[in-house]
């Protein structure tokens, strides 16, 4: 990539004015276009750095979005590379903790003055658990702010940009916006649509079976696939399972290992809320593995069975850990998770009964299938148990992304466009 030398005649318009404001030399239209192109390339290069930093909060920042920030100096007269020198880096790692911009400003210190900030999400403009980041950038003397994603949070939504511009800071928005949006799909979807992003995970045989007729299902897939599932769990604010799975498997649904994270880091991750959909109120017992972890639980039962299950929860001494909720439908459950528990990403890990309901009701955004090289035969339980009588009623999934995980295939479908 060619560098921008703001001092060299004909290489850029930014510093080409003499002290009285008149042009020191003439810049042709094509030279200006080359300058713009170089600026765009540099913007994308440094935004990519900020996106990498954002990923550091992937498992820990929820319910907040992940955000990365780099501060870059471009002034050769001050000893910096005209191609840009990074003077501060920051990631948002924890809800309630400093935002990415604050970390980057602290790292840069006085070198932040006159720099360009590359931020993957519009800087916040409100007092939440931390003060507004746009004010911190203004106070530090940042000259230009380049933003990837717009923040639809009504408390920000354009206000961050307005505040920066009102203070005389140049703002460029939308640089690598699609890449930044992809890091925060659940957050953006929940804030703008009210529903969290739902990922349904299914482990099945090559002939589409998820359990034997007896209920036995451990294990269809291999160890590599099962440890990959831990990463899905670590990304979820809530994990939904069903009573059939609780009764058959007594799962823990815990996160025990995630590539790149130490045991200490895993222990500090915010635990996912566990939701058991138990329409008939048959699966709560005090000795369940689900009760042994740090997670809070929602136990969802039909209104007729509320009192019975609440009594069992109270008698087990689990009132502080388990909230018994009325079953008002799966869509309403998702709305409640977003509204009452700040959940942005949901993982459904259930048997064919509940999984099929989520699929039939069109509530699944991402379907992740781990397919084992194994045939279980016609009496084993199918992954999808809905009655479909004609091809025109088939649920079409679109093109998959396929990866090999150990001996199994991981086949991922995106069902919604958000
Ligand atoms: N291979 C895999 O990936 C995998 C994963 C998990 C579990 N499994 C296996 O799957 C088997 C259990 O499957 P399962 O189908 O019996 O149970 P399940 O899917 O785990 O749970 C079914 C529960 O969901 C409720 N439910 C279903 N649709 C609903 C809706 N629309 N609204 C409200 N509640 C709804 C059911 O109520 P009703 O009883 O009233 O219908 C029941 O309480 C076990 O053998 C387990 O080992 C396999």
Task: Report the sheet with the most strands, covering strand number, pairing sense and barrel closure.
Answer: 9 strands, mixed
Please tell me how large the radius of gyration is.
26 Å
Q: Which ions and ligands are bound to the chains?
A: NADP nicotinamide-adenine-dinucleotide phosphate
- From the spread of the alpha carbons, the general shape counts as elongated
Adjacency order of strands in the biggest sheet: 11-10-9-8-12-6-13-16-15
What is the overall pLDDT average?
90
The proportion of residues forming helix, as a percent range, comes to 25-40%
Strand/helix succession? HEEHEHEHEHHEEHEHHEEHEHEHEEEE
Uncertain segments are: 1-25
Number of β-strand runs: 16
Question: How would you characterize the overall build of this protein?
Answer:
By secondary structure, this protein is α/β, with parallel strands linked by helices. It has 12 helices and 16 strands. The protein has helices spanning 29-54, 100-108, 133-139, 159-166, 177-183, 185-193, 223-234, 243-249, 263-268, 306-315, 330-341, 352-360, and strands at residues 68-73, 85-91, 116-121, 144-149, 170-173, 197-205, 209-211, 238-242, 273-277, 297-301, 322-326, 345-348, 366-372, 381-382, 401-405, 408-414. Strands 11-10-9-8-12-6-13-16-15 form a 9-stranded mixed beta sheet, sandwiched between helices. Strand 3 (116-121), helix 3 (133-139) and strand 4 (144-149) form a beta-alpha-beta unit. Helix 3 (133-139) runs parallel beside helix 4 (159-166). It is elongated and about 75 Å long. Mean pLDDT is 90; it is low at 1-25.
